[in-house]
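Case study.
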Amino acid sequence: MNRRASWFNVTSIAFGLAFLYLPILLLIIYSFNESRLVTVWAGFSTKWYVSLFSNQGLLDAAWVTLRVALLSATAATILGTLAAIALVRFGRFYGRTLFSGMIYAPLVMPDVIIGLSLLLLFVAVDFGRGFWTIVLAHITFSLCFVAIVVQSRLSTFDRSLEEAALDLGCPPVRTFFQITLPLIAPAVIAGWMLAFTLSLDDLVIASFTTGPGATTLPMKIYSQVRLGVTPEINAVSTILIGIVSIGVIAASLVTKRREVARIRAERQAAAGIRNGI
Amino acid sequence: MAAKAIGPVRRTFAPWDDPAAPPFIEFRNVTKRFGDFVAVDNLSLTIYEREFFALLGPSGCGKTTLMRMVAGFEEPTEGEVLLDGQDLAGVPPYRRPTNMMFQSYALFPHMTIEANIAFGLKQDRMPKAEINARVEEMLTLVKLTPFAKRKPHQLSGGQKQRVALARSLARKPKVLLLDEPLGALDKKLREETQFELVDLQQELGLTFLIVTHDQEEAMTVADRVAIMDHGRIMQVATPAEVYEQPNSRYVADFIGDINLIEGRIVDRAGGRVWLDCGEAGGMIEVEQAMEAATGDDAWFAIRPEKISLSLEAPAAPSVNCITGEVWDIGYLGDVSIYHVRLPDGTTMKSTVTNRTRLVERQITWDDRVWLTWPRDAGVVLTR
Amino acid sequence: MTTVDSPGRHDTANRPNPARWLVVAIPYVWLFLLFLIPFLIVLKISFSLTAIAQPPYTPVLDLGGGISGVIEAFKEFTVENYLWLTEDALYAKAYLSSIEIAVVSTALVLLVGYPIAYGMARAPKAIQPMLLMLIILPFWTSFLIRVYSWIGILKKEGLLNQFLLWLGVISKPLTILNTDTAVYIGIVYSYLPFMILPLYAALERLDPTLLEAAADLGCRPSRAFWRVTFPLSLPGVIAGCFLVFIPVTGEFVIPDLLGGSNTLMIGRTLWNEFFSNRDWPLASAVAVVLLLILVVPIVIFQNRAERGEGAINKVPM
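After joint prediction, the assembly is written out as follows.
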């Protein structure tokens, strides 16, 4: 690569990252603004964070959102992992095309369509709308994301590991729990985190499928945002961004450290061969 | 084919020559299809107890499928597979008294070496003390005791191979299946390990079935070798027989280097065959008892190392002498391969052992040379 | 070895086994009941008459009535909602402008995303994972919040105008918020990671010796880009375009928060029809037509994804 190309590359990455992070950064900075006018800097203050914790409506919504996300991410991870196994391992089974269609379509399907159709289902079967309908809706669309994440790990999985377990006398179900699951665990955990954040984020589907009494944080934020920018929303957003970022960065650091340890060990082993061990 | 004593004569283990010997692994008219692809084609084969048996063939010849049927990872489409008299149909892999060493070793990356070896024993619900003792024993066997607590990725390729071996032997299987077990090792280590495998097999007295595409490996380790092509067995015999008395051009060509000359059988008498090879080889006389009729097309097959090369015509009139020009010389260190062009334009290869350090050889490019070989050096093949 | 023998790999798995059966059945039934059936209901209700009572549509799916009940329900089917969609030019405009915005913004995202993905793929191997992490991180943080963050920047007395006034580039504040420009900015911003990730996956796989070979054969770098790099990154380009185009067509949050009252997008129309006018059958008809528009790209996307093309599967992580 010549120097001019690399200058171009550095610029485009710098520009890209600035574009991605500047708005978030500004949002965080202005959450510490003394003034209610979010665009005029009037000194550092944490008063908006303090006022958040006395806003019972917001706290309730946060609690609902957290419970929805925990429940739906967990269920979606189980269902999505099963779906991934079916996709990768079961070859051609009856109705496979429909099945994979139902997995891939929600990835790109506009939220309004998913939300509307689920709502109409809940009305048609006369299912009381509220907390549980949001959970069901979130499970449905996030299980597809989990399935894709787990599927891409499974498709590179060395099947001879499972065959080795069977060969050594381990029945199939036990083989899954002792061999397959521990080895695809990073993907399953990543799938759970993805499902969790998708649920945390969702406004449209939750708005359609909710009923009286169940307001999620995004719905609360949305209704306030429509009235204009407020430093309180900046503060809530900052907290949300902080939690998600810490979670994602921690998870990636853990996997990276494991990776580094593995590479180091492999180098040692290679050195061992040279020394004739 | 004549049961002439060739190869290591002091051989005492030869159950395949004993009609009363009970079969241990038996394939009866086995066919395996994957969709339209026939991986194994109506194949029958018997393997005996304590035998080290090799399945040899190119990629896709069905050798791996055959082995996976013994392990239980494939079921035959037709025919049956028997182990020690028991039909294996419908027996899942985890209930078969066989264990396999995988090509990729398939060591569980999340378990220590110890736990890998203990894995199969735990499935049998063996008491803990017994498991520990057995693991200890296996680690000693493969000389890896100091590495017990390590994870697979902390081992070298050769060490992983030994762990895989220990793991598959821990359960004392009736048959050990080895799928290209040494394919991932470098040449030197592979050669050493081949002999270790043979010693181990003799020490443990187990039946070993190995799949390989490496003919040297098969010849080194196995009591008998089956050469496969397109789902069929071309020949089953001891390594020496396969090399010295191939039953077909395919086998002759697959194992080692060979010269093939096309001709026609013109006469047959007293255990000798005369083959008219036209311009290429003239009249070739071979000591061989065979059933082919006069006038049949046939091929004369001879290994390059069995041909003598000289710059002068033989003094006494000799059988099997042809002349040609040196076309090419390949220097391999221990031997040199001479490509000799015959009058009809075909080439014959002859290997000459380099007994001196002289770089300048007596025979060089464009020299006229005479190729001679005795009657019992080559074979006549009819297919 | 594995090439020819591999068809047998699935062999042991093909034995009937109750556990195996459940593995497919549980997610299958779930998606069937909560993804497919709801669409059929949407389709059915889109043919229903509007009623003011709750639930706000007439023929309720009542299987208790047996065959005759179903026939009875079918008699009440009406295409009135669809006629209404064609009669009122507002809907046609909304569909067309949705597609227009989706096409233009997909092109914009590609234009912005390609150099970034290219720069990432050419960056030193050691820092690539970190760059990837930095691109993915915003994807994990709330979509709504990311859109919201632009309001404070784009509004009349917002940070962008303050900055431009301070620079002296402009003399009076620009109106950006509540225009289509703001919608484009919001879409490019929100969907950028969806474009960069498949592009990066395709570009990163590109063998650098191909470019050396091109140079060796006398091809200038700029030509080599168009002749070698770009064609080989096409699977990533296509995947990224699908991942942006399809959801943007039905986008609601961005046009609602950043767009103006005259920014017509069908996702917003559907929302308003549903929540403000409470006309569920009409909202359903709007959804059905939107789905019809998107069904071809969705099917193509799904086929490509299932074949593992263009690294679509790599997107979320």
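Observations recorded in class. Chain A touches chain B at residues 158, 160-161, 163-172, 179, 182-183, 262, 265-266, 268-270, 272-273, 277 (CB under 8 Å). Chain A has two domains: 54-228, 231-277. We will return to this complex in the next lecture.
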